[in-house]
UniProtKB/TrEMBL annotation, chains A, B, C, D:
This is 5'-nucleotidase SurE. Its cofactor is a divalent metal cation. InterPro entries: SurE, SurE-like_Pase/nucleotidase. Its EC number is 3.1.3.5. Residues 3-183 form the Survival protein SurE-like phosphatase/nucleotidase domain. It is found in: Cytoplasm. The lineage of its organism: Bacteria, Pseudomonadati, Pseudomonadota, Gammaproteobacteria, Chromatiales. It comes from Arsukibacterium indicum. It comes from the Bacteria. GO terms for molecular function: 3'-nucleotidase activity. The gene is surE. Keywords: Cytoplasm, Hydrolase, Metal-binding, Nucleotide-binding. Nucleotidase that shows phosphatase activity on nucleoside 5'-monophosphates. Belongs to the SurE nucleotidase family.
Length: 250, 250, 250, 250
């Protein structure tokens, strides 16, 4: 099996290094990641400037672009063989609920899916680097399973693993995305020259973290797996919309 | 009615100026957009650096950030009153099919929705600036209708309008997202110093542009309205996934 | 006379607009400036990415690059006729003493000189925008004089004007660069996520602001003109250096 | 002896790694460099965003800023002890003649000088990485000499070494800066979307490369050492300027 590995924290981050080693036990792994921390990059593309690559001593390829750029560039230009699977992570910090919309790690997986490949995003819900090993272990097990149980062609898996030892992990839950409360997450300040600046700050409190959500799984010591679909069309609303549009006279 | 207007082409672009004037006929409009072209920004956030604002002579507020930053900053920090609606556009160029995943204009609308507000993204499917007026007209009519027919709380509308005169427009179609073929859209080159570089290039050919899609509507002279839902959870796959995960032993 | 006008605060700044109007009384002026605030850009070049231009409604040309890029691009690619003079400013804030090393405005003038043209940098030593008119007036008078008294081929003029009404200006002093004390100008802080960050802060106190310096002129109500030479070779030290190098055995 | 080492090619470049090892034979070396290639950064400062550091596995500290930022941050915030010397390099490619104005490597040395320290910039005039060893050797020998022959307080040394084996090096010449012809170094092109772009291209041909210049030394197989002074005041022109200004009536 050939795996393309990427992330959004950048190619020098601990999480991608641990995952590269774990995946190398079961597959040929090629790692192509951003040369800088791209947290919050979402599915952004570098359209106005060209991309460049640099191969590091450990064989990782660093790209001066976003996670989406990395996966697109790798598959369309850099790799000799199309990979069998795209894996993104291990993200430093959780990607739960609304986070998935902004996450560059989830975006790297989505880009793999767009290019026709099965794809998985993996995040450590916590900061204790020792527990990247737990997330790597879960990922390897899921991938083994994936071989015989392929995903639908328009979906990816979003895995979050609590930052605890493997021995403490209670299991894996299939979940839906919860929601954070988004308001009040930005603060204003002044820079040292007295000019007003604004920062994103702490994450909002949870708004929907009830049973069945990814928040709930993590809070209770389970790894969370959420299937995400890539097609954003809201089919259910089409009829209604059609009715009220009928009244518009251009 | 109060409208927050943003875009991804930047606050100096023609499309946002035309739309601001049209919307001002029916609402109080506050315009907050990026200070530079952010095409392809998707839902990216500026997490590592602070945001700054500058109010221009025409009252528009320019932000050194992404479309998502603009909407989030406006609603959480800049506006005295929460707006009734978020509008993003008029985008210079179409946002059809897979484009919505990468579009900063669609992302601006999505961010409005995340913060609890109805939201619309508008794009001109073509480059002839004279026809921004057509897109502006369609947008105004849809907004008038929206007052009495509110959208579901987890959806936005993605409007694309062909670049033709209003008199030639055949009507409005409710559509689902089509798909572009993604492969082969990147090319390699060398910079003037002989170093290898890579560029995204022309958009892929259409892979699913059949009847019912947004591509189809535009190709046939109709404005396209696609309802998009924001929750990416793939509810349908949860049972299946649960079954095969049962076999994993950690 | 043809003048190429640029700055480092960006093409939307008040200072360049006031100066453009004043210079238009005595010359054909073409304005090419950065599309964003580039304070502190020094002589930096954009080598890894391409430059792009956008012509604004007022005829100014905005470039996605540094002040040096603007002057180089204008002279080598954009202008039909080589200008007779390069003017940079009016800078928002003083460029005194060591500031000239970091100033993008001074760098724009230096680039003009490198390309073989007489060049002047102008800064307002203060923030009261009403007094840009004073700096513009001084600049126009100096330029008139410059026609009959050309500068040496390796020098530029660095003009600073106090932020006072023209009627209060005591005159113009020819000065040498003073010096600021550089230490203790940086501070550390944490971002909202608890990560350590560092900012440049307030300017250092003056270390050499005695009679004859540019600091002294401004402090006493005079405009300051400092001739700057572009060749950094330290001719005086060459003999000494040659002697002690003689002892090196490779 | 304590040495602060920096560069402009970035902390992952080969040149800074070779020099770090050579300098470690004669001093305690702390390496603080940009996290990305900053060629052409000149003395630019990061004023609008905060700086961040990351300590790499090899002990090098990577900064998300310019070479000037690195030296300023290191001396004012990061180091426990003020270093005795600032060294910048080994630059990948020559810094000869006008290049010094744009070079981030020379700027790193200049910043050391501004903060009161002796400073040296070192460049390899060629691309063959095997010969970084020659440049490192010359640098070490010059530093040994510098201990007993301090530089004037307002000067730095700019060293260029030809990309040849040490055994082929003919010696060291003290030089003045030559000059390149600057015109015709930019080219225009179109990006894959058909929009016009401009690139800096090949370096200009030599305009002044005669005996005594740094160009001449390199071309003849010698290392070149040019003393550069930091004060740009053109003292010689002050009298003349004073005379013609006398005629200005404000």
């Amino acid at each position: 099996m050939r795996i393309l590995l990427s992330n959004d924290d950048g190619v020098y981050a601990k999480g991608i290094q641990v995952l590269q080693q774990a995946l190398s036990q079961i597959a040929d792994v090629i790692t192509v990641g951003p040369d800088r921390n791209c947290s919050g990059a979402s599915n952004s593309l570098t359209l106005l400037n060209p991309l460049r690559t640099q191969t590091l001593d450990n064989g990782f390829i660093a790209v001066n672009g976003t996670p989406t750029d990395c996966v697109h560039l790798a598959i369309s230009q850099l790799l000799d063989h199309t990979p069998d699977l795209v894996v993104a992570g291990i993200n430093h910090g959780a990607n739960l609920g609304d986070d998935v919309l902004y996450s560059g790690t989830v975006a790297a997986a989505t880009e793999g899916r767009h290019l026709g490949l099965p794809a998985i995003a993996v995040s450590l819900a916590g900061r204790e680097e020792a527990h990247f090993a737990t997330a790597a272990h879960v990922t390897v097990e899921v991938i083994k399973k994936l071989k015989s149980h392929p995903l639908p062609a328009d979906q990816i898996l979003n895995i979050n693993v609590p930052a605890i030892a493997l021995s403490e992990l209670k299991g894996i839950m299939v979940t839906r995305l919860g929601r954070r409360h988004k308001a009040e997450t930005m603060s204003s300040d002044t820079d040292p020259w007295g000019r007003k600046i604004y920062w994103y700050g702490s994450l909002g409190p949870e708004l929907d973290a009830g049973e069945g959500t990814d928040f709930y799984a993590i809070a209770n010591g389970y790894a969370s797996i959420t299937p995400l679909h890539v097609d954003m069309s809201a089919y259910k609303s089409m009829d209604t919309l059609e009715q009220w549009l009928a009244g518009i006279r251009l």
